[in-house]
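notes to self, project folder thing:

trying the whole complex as one job this time. last attempt i did each chain seperately and stitching them together was a nightmare. two parts in total, labels are on each line so i dont mix them up again. if this works i'll redo the older ones the same way
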Amino acid sequence: MSSPAAAPPTRPQADRPSKPPPPIGVLVAIVVFAGITVYSAVGIEFTLRPLWEDVNRGREIVARYFDPNWAILTRPAVREGFLETLYIAIIATLVGCILALACAMLASKVSAPNTAVYRFVKLALSVLRSLPDLAWGLLFVAFVVDGPLAGVLALIMFNIGIVAKLTSESIDAVDRGPIEAVEAAGASRFQRGRFAVLPQVAPNYLSYCFYVFEINIRASAVLGIVGAGGLGVVINILVSRLQHEDLAAVVYALVIVVFILDQASRAVRRRLT
Amino acid sequence: MTSPQRPGTGTRTRPRPPSRTRSTVWLVVSAAIVLFAIWQVDARWERFGNIVTEAPRFIALMGQGVIENPFTMPWSEYWSKSLALMIESLQMAWIGTLIGAVLSFPVSFLAASNTAPRVVVIVTRQVLNIIRAVPEIVLALVFMIPVFGLGPLAGAMALGVGSVGTLGKLSSEAIEGIDRGPLEALDAAGASRLQQLRWAVVPQVLPEIVAFWLYRFEINIRAGAILGIVGAGGIGSILDQLFSGREWGRIGITLVVIIVVTVIVDQISARVRQRIIAGPGAPKAARMVREQVAV
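result (full assembly):
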C-alpha cells in the first residue's frame, strides 16, 4: 500500500533515518488528481460566490422551507402520489429481483452454461447499469406512454443491473463442495443451480433485494419528473409553480417515509446476513 | 433443504426437513403486498403490449442514428455535442465527489463510536441518514438551483451534499473497524486526542476511505448524467428535449455516449480502487473490496 498523504512532522533529530522519498506513483497520482480537479472546476465554472453574494435570494427561499405548508399532505393528489411511489417500488422490486436471479445465474462463471453466455450477460448487465434510472424512465415513457407502468419498467431494468451484478459476485464466491456433490449425484443444470448454488447465496440475494427496494423508493419518488408516475409528478408541478412551502412539506414527508422504510429494510438485512 | 428424489433405501432414518412455516408465511405476506400494489396502482397494464409493438421501431430508429456516418455534418455535431455534455457531467461528478469527500471526512469521525462521544454519534448518524433519504435530483431542484442558479454548479453542489450521507456512513464504519493497537501506543506516548486521530486512525482508514470516494464518484457519474433533466447541467439537459421532440436518432447517439463513457470511467475507477485497497502487488487477489454497497 502506498503511504498516506502527509509527511510526518519535521523534527530535527539527526539520529533518525531519513524518510524515504514518496514513491513516483503517488506523485503522479497527485498531479493527475490536481489536473482533473482544475479542469473540472474550470469546466463547470465552480464558485462558491452565490453562497454569500446571492445570500438574500438563497435565504429567502431557504426561509420558506422552514415554514412548510403541512395542509398540502392531505390533498388526495399528494396522498396518491406517495402511495403510487410505494406501489411502483414494490412491484418493480419483486419483478426486478426475480429476473435478476436468473440473470445472475447466467452472469457467474460458476453457474453459466458456457463462457460466451457468461461474457455476454456480464456485458449486458454493465450496459443496463450504466444508464441512470431517469434515463430508463424517459425511454419507457416514450415506449408505453407516461404513467406508473413506465416507472415500473424503468426500475425493473435498473434493478436487474444492480441485483444481478451483486448476486453474480456472490455466486462467484460460493463453496464448490456442494456443486461437486450434486454433480456426482447426477443432477441436471437446473438442479445444480437450485440445490447447490441457490441455498448458498440466498441470504445475500435477499439482502440485495431489500437494498434495491430502498433505492427504488427514492428513485420512484423522482421518476415522475419525467412523467413516469408517482410523487415526482407532484414535485414537478409544485416546482414549476414555485410553491416552496408546499414543496417543503412534501419533501419532508418523503424524507420521513424513506427514512422509516430504510430503517425497516436495514433491520431485515441485518438479520439476513 | 429438501433433496431431489432418490431411490429410498434409508428413508426412515433420514432427518425430517426443517419446518417451512416461517418462510411460507413470509412468502404469502409478500405476495399479498405485491398483489395489493398491482391491484391498487393505476398502471394501465394493457399498455405493456406497446413494448412489443412500438419499442422495436424506436430502437431501430435509434440504431439508425448511431450508425449514421459520424463525420458528416448534422451527425458529427450531435456526437461532439453529446460528448461535450457528457464531459460536463463527469466534471460535475468529480467536483461533487470532491465536495462530498471534504465535507464527509471530518463528519465521519463524529459518526464513529470509537472517536466521538455517544450523543454526538447518534445525532450525526441521524443527520447522515436524513441526507441519504433525499434523492440528488430533489436536492438540486429544491435547494441548489434556487441558490446557485441553473447550470452545472448547482448540479455539482447537489451531488456533493448528496454524497455526504453515504460517504460519512461508510467512512465512519471503516473508522469503527480499526485496530486499537496504534491508538493505545500513541496514548501511552502521550499524544493528544487530535494527534491520536492523525497518526493512529487516519493512516489505517485512509485507503479504504479513498476507495469509498472513488466508488461514490462512480455513482455520481450516473446521477450527474440525469441532473440536467431539471436544469442542473450535464448531458441530461438535452435528454429531456430530445425525448419530447422524439428525435430518436439523436437519442440513440446520446445514450451510446452515456453508456460508453460511464462504462469506461467505471472500469478505470474500479481498477484504481482495487489497487488502492489491495496494493500494487495484488491486482486480482483482493476482489472482495466492498462492492456490495454499490449504487
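what i see at first glance: The mean pLDDT of chain A is 86.
need to look closer tmrw
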